[in-house]
Specification:
The protein is α/β, with parallel strands linked by helices. The chain contains 11 helices and 8 strands. The mean pLDDT is 97.
Length: 262
């Protein structure tokens, strides 16, 4: 187990494989990197050193428990990069990890060679759907954990995907993200994110990936995120929010193609 101290946090991270460094920043959920990236890491570790931090709010990282900010989590990613490798990395953030990764690229452009933001958003202001969804998650997390799991599952995956895997596998997905105190800290941050002031400072070549059937953070947010980053490339995958679970091959191909561009 590798940890690095960042302010009041002991931040855990793993490094797998060999080659140029690829840092994967997880989304919401106390299970952190393992839940988000467990099936994806082997797809890149044969040619890259894949680094997976567990940010505050996850089970493997400890801190004082204060409300989270994007800047606080970005500082943890920065510290992991500096502890794990020498020189810039390719940085991929999913969902909550997308605005955190964008903040890293804006605040420390010297550390990011290429940036990929999947199913992310720049802010929640003015979107009553997103505000209500995250408010519902916070309420269900305290009052009805089973309903919380069902809501996360329904919005995390496309209807076609859920129907294709059948009832037993859908039921097996529901407990994957329990509403632990750490998860609810993430949801609270999700509801408050606003990185619009940072996006013009991103210098790294950037790929923004939107999910056309995203019912957690509707695809318009990915389009807006891309438009705010100078010179970014934008691509859509026909999938729900957890795009690398529904369409792992397509996700891997798109990411690999962008990373291997000159």
């Amino acid at each position: 187990m590798t940890t690095v101290t960042v302010a009041d946090a002991q931040v855990h991270y793993e490094a797998t494989g060999s080659g140029p460094a690829l840092v994967l920043v997880h989304g919401t959920g106390s299970a952190g990197a393992d839940l988000t990236w467990g099936d994806i890491v082997p797809r890149f570790a044969s040619t890259r050193t894949v680094i997976t931090p567990d940010l505050s709010g996850t089970d493997l990282t400890t801190d004082a428990g204060a409300p989270l900010t994007v800047e606080y989590l970005a500082a943890q990613v920065i510290a992991v990069i500096e502890d794990a490798v020498a020189g810039p990395v390719d940085l991929l953030g999913f969902s909550m990890g997308a605005p955190v990764s964008a903040a890293v690229a804006a605040l420390r452009p010297d550390l990011v060679r290429r940036l990929i933001l999947a199913a992310g958003w720049a802010h929640t202001e003015g979107d009553e759907y997103v505000r209500n969804l995250f408010t519902l998650w916070k309420q269900l997390g305290h009052s009805d954990p089973a309903a919380f799991g069902r809501s996360v599952t329904m919005t995390g995956f496309s209807r076609a995907f859920l129907n294709s895997i059948g009832r037993d596998q859908v039921e097996a997905l529901i407990p994957n993200m329990p509403p632990t105190p750490g998860t609810l800290r993430h949801v609270d941050l999700d509801s408050r994110i606003d990185i619009r002031h940072l996006l013009p400072r991103v210098q790294a070549p950037t790929l923004v990936l939107g999910a056309t059937q995203d019912a957690t953070v509707p695809i318009e947010h990915s389009r807006t995120l891309s438009a705010a980053i100078p010179g970014s490339t934008y691509t859509e995958i026909d999938t729900g929010h957890v795009m690398f679970f529904e369409r792992a091959d397509e996700f891997t191909k798109v990411v690999s193609g962008f990373l291997h561009e000159a």
